[in-house]
Design goal:
Blueprint: H1 9-15, E1 21-33, E2 38-43, E3 51-55, H2 62-67, E4 73-82, E5 90-101, H3 117-122, H4 131-153, E6 157-158, E7 164-165, E8 177-178, E9 205-207, H5 212-222, E10 224-232, E11 245-254, H6 258-279, H7 281-296, H8 308-317, E12 321-324, H9 325-333, H10 336-339, H11 356-367, E13 371-377, E14 393-401, E15 405-412, H12 417-426, H13 435-442, E16 448-454, H14 455-463
Parallel strand pairs: 3-5, 6-10, 12-13
Antiparallel strand pairs: 1-2, 1-4, 2-3, 4-5, 7-9, 8-9, 10-11, 11-16, 13-14, 14-15, 15-16
Helix pairs in contact: 4-6, 4-7, 4-14, 6-8
Bound molecules: adenosine-5'-triphosphate and manganese (II) ion.
Subcellular location: Cytoplasm
Catalytic activity: tRNA(Asn) + L-asparagine + ATP = L-asparaginyl-tRNA(Asn) + AMP + diphosphate + H(+)
Protein name: Asparagine--tRNA ligase
């Protein structure tokens, strides 16, 4: 049973075992050649580079060679030899080829040519077999690993918060309902509403929009925790930055104030990006070139001034700018696009919610650096954010990235019971349902803080892809749940 005695292409490229016999398994990207020899470019997913298999028709039958078409899966045994051709240092002289899975070239959707992103989204079940998507998903893996490594090394504990909840943490109401009731004939209350008492959980439930509230409970015991799980938002925003199902990382720390929170977030973002730079060199180099080609076809004024690698290094090497919301409003109000009425939403007065066009102006045009915006008006932020002494603002922070806009949202939490319950009253948040949350303020409360990073926005930034649908394997967006 030597089926799995295969060697990964990455290992061959790392160790260059010239003169040894190895078995490779992988998928054919292309085949070319003539009567006397065939060259098969094989890819096994371990690395972006294809490995060249040289097949001599005296050793490999014509019937087998015919089946080595783009998309087919092969087991190839042969000898590693120094390569004659340019572009690779070694290649495999095949002594036997077994076709593990054929792919009919007439029917296989992925051809060795450039496909549009839209076509590849429609073929998301196959798109990971392309260079672009395999690179994206290897980088995505490295980033996820770096997240866990960062927090583990710092003594944070990974908490799995529930996916089904009865609370709508943001109070935004953009939740997916969870029910086992018969939708055609649900039980009714005497008032005519749906009787959720008869539902599975004996109450109304939904998919979580955030693990923060439960994360806060854990932080009141383990001090430094983080969550990393799926979150769901039924917001009908068909943008390149929103998914209906996305992964969020939410650290929550006891004994942290707003400044500690911002320091951690900046250090964390830099660490994760540096990890990708150090560990995904080949994939990032490929994605850098891909982005440059994509930029070339854009009109000159829309082109990014920096390459992908420049952008990543720039974030790692520079301090983020920290300004208050109030300072940002002054900058925006006096900005050219505001005066010339170029913004879709003009900034007229203090209190306005910032749109992505404003966030991107601050980051990309004004500061040309990531920006940490703090101390937002309390009326545009959530009930749990700590009120500042001015009575108007809360200790919130949003981190804004070039090309992305908001990548992190966080705050110091309101630990003072009287201030918190007053705010909940003003915002019509039912306190009886939240008794468990309020217990943390009743018993052993302490200053604490945390933030949420949308994982796909991070992957989007690091890979330089243009659409969030292209950095998650099977995107969920309005009207789209095919795979
Ligand atoms: P936005 O204003 O961009 O919709 P938000 O204010 O709703 O973001 P938060 O509720 O603070 O975002 O969520 C924390 C983080 O989760 C955001 O900073 C962002 O990185 C990410 N995020 C939020 N909504 C989505 C979404 N629909 N798809 C992907 N990531 C998201
Ligand atoms: Mn949102």
């Amino acid at each position: 049973m030597a089926f799995n005695k295969r060697v990964k292409i990455k290992t061959i490229l790392d160790t260059n075992p010239i003169g040894t016999e190895v078995t490779l398994m992988g998928w054919v990207r292309t085949k070319r050649g003539n009567k006397n020899v065939s060259f098969i470019a094989l890819n096994d997913g371990s690395i972006i580079t294809n490995y060249q298999v040289v097949a001599d028709p005296n050793l490999i039958s014509e019937e087998i060679l015919k089946k080595c078409a783009t998309g087919a899966c092969l087991k190839v045994t042969g000898n590693v030899v120094a390569s004659q051709g340019a572009g690779q240092s070694s290649e495999l002289n095949a002594t036997s080829i077994e076709v593990l899975g054929e792919a009919d070239p007439e029917k296989y959707p992925l051809q060795p040519k450039k496909h549009s992103m839209e076509f590849l989204r429609e073929n998301a079940h196959l798109r990971m077999r392309t260079n672009t998507f395999s690179a994206v998903f290897r980088v995505r893996h490295a980033l996820a690993f770096a997240v866990h490594k960062y927090f583990n090394d710092k003594g944070f504990f990974y908490i799995h918060t529930p996916i089904i909840t009865a609370s709508d943490a943001e109070g935004a109401g953009e939740t997916f309902k969870v029910t086992t009731l018969d939708l055609k004939n649900p039980p009714k209350t005497s008032e005519g509403g749906i009787d959720y008492k008869q539902d599975f959980f004996e109450r109304e439930t939904n998919l979580t929009v955030s693990g923060q509230l439960e994360g806060e409970l854990a932080a009141m015991a383990l001090a430094d925790i983080y969550t990393f799980g799926p979150t769901f938002r039924a917001e009908n925003s068909n943008t390149t930055r929103h998914l209906a199902e996305f992964w969020m990382i939410e650290p929550e720390m006891a004994f942290y104030d707003a400044e500690d929170n911002a320091d951690l977030a900046e250090d964390f973002l830099k660490y994760v990006i540096r990890y990708a730079l150090d560990n995904c060199a080949e994939d990032l180099a490929f994605l850098d070139t891909r982005l440059q080609e994509e930029e070339k076809v854009k009109p000159a004024d829309q082109r990014s001034e920096m390459s992908l690698m420049d952008k990543l290094r720039f974030v790692v090497d520079n301090d983020f700018v920290r300004i208050t919301y109030t300072e940002a409003i002054d900058i925006l109000r006096n900005s050219n696009p505001n005066k010339k009425k170029k913004f879709s939403y003009l900034i007229e007065s203090w209190g306005a919610d910032l749109q992505s066009e404003h966030e991107r102006f601050l980051v990309e045009k004004h500061f040309k650096k990531p920006v940490i915006l703090t101390d937002y008006p309390k009326d545009i932020k959530s009930f749990y954010m700590r009120q500042n002494d001015d009575g108007k603002t809360v200790a919130a922070m949003d981190i804004l990235f070039p090309g992305i806009g908001e990548i992190v949202g966080g705050s110091q939490r309101e630990e003072r019971m009287d201030v918190l319950t007053k705010r909940m009253e003003e915002m019509n948040i039912p306190q009886d349902e939240m008794w468990w949350y309020l217990d943390t303020r009743r018993f052993g409360a302490t200053p604490h803080a945390g933030f949420g990073l949308g994982f796909e926005r991070m992957v989007l930034f690091v890979t330089g892809m243009g659409n969030i649908r292209d950095v998650i394997a099977f995107p969920r967006t309005p009207g789209n749940a095919e795979f």
